[in-house]
Structures are given as structure tokens and as C-alpha cells.
Amino acid sequence: MSDQETFVDVVDWQLTGPGLLAAAAAAATSWPSVSASRARQVKWVVGEYTRALAHAEHPLAEDAGVREVFTAGPVDAYLRLARTGQLRVRKAADPSRGSDHSEQIRLEVLKLLVTACGAEDFAELPPQPDPPRKTPVAKRPRSLLRAQLTELADSPAATTSQLRMLAVGATVSDTGIRAGEMCARTVEDLSPTLEELRVVRRPQGWSEAEAFTELLALSGLSRAALKRWLPQRQRLLTRVGGTATALWVSLHGNHHDGQAVPAGTPLMPRGLARAWTRTVVDTNIEMTGQPSWEPLPTRMEQLRRGVQPTAVRAPRVPDAEKAVVLLDDVAARGRHLAELRREGEENSTAELQARIAARQAVRAAWAEGIEHTLQLSVLAEAGLPDDAGLAAAGWEPVLLAAIDRGQGWGRPSRAADAV
Questions:
Q1: 319-356 pLDDT, tens digit each
Q2: Do 156 and 46 touch, CB atoms closer than 8 A?
Q3: Nearest-CA neighbor of 362 among 336, 413, 328, 312?
Q4: Own/partner pairs, 238-244, CB within 8 angstroms, 24+ separation
Q5: Which long-range CB contacts under 8 A does 338-347 form with residues at least 24 apart?
Q6: Which of 15, 166, 196, 299 would you label with 226, given CA atoms 20 to 30 Å apart?
Q7: Average pLDDT, the chain
Q8: Cβ neighbours around 207 below 10 Å, total
């Protein structure tokens, strides 16, 4: 059965007007790809369009069917009434002022409703306008920001808040990822050497099928910042039970629905935005008086738009046959490196070459999407069970500690120690 046939079965074409729109909204908001915020937008647009059908200036009435509601004339009439504030529940201060952003949302939601009804063949929606371009941060302020972050990275007196925002700011400067993408990252998304970050991209108005994965290069500044942030993150997780894999966590306890929430819980996009704004304000104050300084925007959105990251596409899910080959290579490279280390060949030319080969094998397995814990298990069996041996194979010790915290004992060596 095709997707269209599935949606037709969900939304009965015999429904009309408000009933049709309500059924389309219920179908669309039930999809896993529709977020809570998008669901609220769907309900808002359906409410507007329902009121439009009762408006004297709209060409349709409440008995309009699916073949009429989404055609050009009725849709244009709805958008005009909404744009001029005539469909508001509460009267606006200036109804004549419409928002380009609101118009964009209405068009995106209408497209969802059309899909929910299976009405693509006869719907006539206006094209979605290109989003307004936002001015990226100029090159000099960006370089000054990186210099400021570098100075902070070298400061032994940096606070936990500063270290978190140092890592966030450096990562955004390298990758240009959005706040939501940032908050969705886990320790699993960091490469073993902290030289790359895995990000799942979801284009604006995305469907699950359109999401894709990229591996983004991280600079030396980002790696240094992460090496300072991860131990602080570990300290913040002391009161968090169970697994703890989120890369960015809260600094202070809070309350949610009457329940105490400890520090170390996953950071949400709104909290990240607020923390970023506070740090940028402080940075702008500190940089006042510097030659040619232009205050940085307090929104991460503008900062990321000036970034052109080095990105490589990666699979969303590992290929099973390829994963077996890659893990065999990790095991073979690990055994060779472990043998040289046992024979006292550390820092020899042969051992250094074996390190490079092991790191390349580990990186290839991570890029395919093979979990850290699976690789670490393979390396332990190959003779590299401790931090020193794993560091030789390319694993950063601070990341190993984060993996252990997120997965219980994590590595077989730790599990064996506990017996």
C-alpha cells in the first residue's frame, strides 16, 4: 500500500469543512516526524482555516470538501484573511501588519495537511518563499571570538559555565549546527580522537526520509575545549541515575512538574540559547574598545550562518556486512599494536606505524556508525583493555570516562575489575 493510500484511509474524504481539517490535523500530529512545536502550529493553522470557512469574505462554506479546501482560490483567501489579522481569536494591536515567518509556517502546515489527506494530485498551494537571509558574522569578529575562546581555554580559572560555552561556541564555529542539533548530540557522536562530530541533519520542513548524517571536522580549539568540558560534565552527572549519554547537560538543579531535577540532565535548546546569550553579552563587554570590534549577535543562528564546515556524508545505520569487515580490521590492528607493546616496542617506528593503522581502523568503524562500546570490547579482546593501550589506538581518555559513565561499566576491563 502506498503512503497516499494510507493517508486516504486515515482521513475520510466524505468529511467536510472543520471535520475534514480536524481529521487532517489529528493524522499529521500523530506522525513521529512531527515535533511538539510543529503540532502546536498545525492546531493553530487548522483553527485559523476553520474560522476562515465561517468568514463572509471566504469563498467556501463549512460544507466544503477535500477537493475544494486546498485549491488556489480558497487557500489564497485564507492566507489573505490570516495575514490581515481577521482570523485572530484576540484582536491584534495592528492587524494590518503580517509576519513573513507566520506566512511561512502556514504554508508548511498546509503542505502537511494536504499530505495527511492524500490530496497532492489536486491541491494548489502557493510556492513557499525563500527564508529571509540573515547577516552572518563578519570575518574579523569571528576571528576575535575564536581568540577569546582560545584565551578562555588556556585559563585555569575558567568556570564550569565558561567551559561549557567555550566548547559550545568552538563547536558551532567549526560546524555551524543548529541549537536543536547541538542538544541532540551524545558522547557516541564524538569520534574517538575528538577530531569529528556526527550530526543528523533535518532540513527545514523535513520528513524522516529526508534526514541525513554528516561527519563534521572539529578544530584544535574544539578538541581542547571538549577535553576541558567532559570532566566537568562527569562531575555534574554525580546525581543523575541510569545511563547518561547527552553531550551537553545542565549546570544547576531545577524543578519540572513539581519534581526536583538534578544538575547533569540533558540541556534543551531553549536553555542552550539562554546560556549562549549570557556568554556573548559578557564577551561583547570584555571586547569593547578593541580595534574594529563589532559586537557579536546574541543569537547562535547568526553565528552559525557564517560557517562553511568540512563535512562528509555518513550512513544513518551501519551496514551489517561492512561492519563485520571493519570490526575484523579493528581487531587485527589492535592485536598487532598490543603485541608490539608487550614486546617493549613502545615508541619504535614499528609501534608508531601500528598506532596510525589502529587509529585509521577505529575511525573507519566509528564513521560507519559502529558503537563505541562494541569497538572497545573488540580492542579489549585484542589485548588493549586499559586506558594507556586504548590511547595508543587513538581514544581520548576523557571520552573513555564519558563512555563508561553512559554505559555502566562500559568496557570489559571495568566489568572484570568489579567482579
A1: 999 999 999 999 999 999 999 999 988 889 999 999 99
A2: no
A3: 328
A4: 238/264, 239/263, 239/264, 240/264, 240/265, 243/406, 243/407, 243/408, 244/405, 244/406
A5: 338/382, 338/383, 338/384, 338/389, 339/383, 341/389, 341/392, 342/383
A6: 299
A7: 82
A8: 13
pLDDT tens column, 250-300: 888 776 666 777 888 888 888 888 877 877 677 667 666 656 556 666 777
The burial of 395, by beta-carbon neighbours within 10 Å (0-12 exposed, 13-18 middle, 19 or more buried), is given as buried
Write down the pLDDT at residue 8: 38
Q: What is the spatial distance between Cα 250 and Cα 191, in angstroms, rounded to a whole number?
A: 23
pLDDT of residue 297: 66
d(CA 210, CA 222): 29
Rounded distance between C-alpha atoms, residue 21 and residue 15, angstroms: 9
Q: Whole-angstrom Cα distance, residue 331 to residue 326?
A: 9
pTM (2 d.p.): 0.65
38 φ, ψ to 5°? -65, -35
CB 333 within 8 A of CB 357: yes
